[in-house]
Amino acid sequence: MRLLPLVSTTELLGHGAQWESLRVLLGNILLFVPLGLLLPVAWPASASWRRMVLAGLATGLVIELGQLLLSIAAPFPYRYVETDDVLLNLAGVLIGYSLRAAGEHVGPLTVARYRRRC
Prior knowledge:
By secondary structure, this protein is mostly helical.
């Protein structure tokens, strides 16, 4: 269990940008981008930065707690429980929400330009 934030990420990046390290880091981020994109569609009340931060933190914490319980229940360590994973998951949610917010801002402008041409 690693509770100090960003220690694992610093270690992974400190050993050079190896494919496995990048896969782990980017995977933790990219897997949560859809949550940031789609959660406001499924639950419109969540469409605020504060609620997206809470949703990202809660989701990452639930996953890490599940990994901890599996590690305790299994006779061998299943996975590492790391605060870095929660932070990277949160980054993915916020990237997804940022893309959604940018799309909502640009979308009406694009539609208005298209209508002027017709």
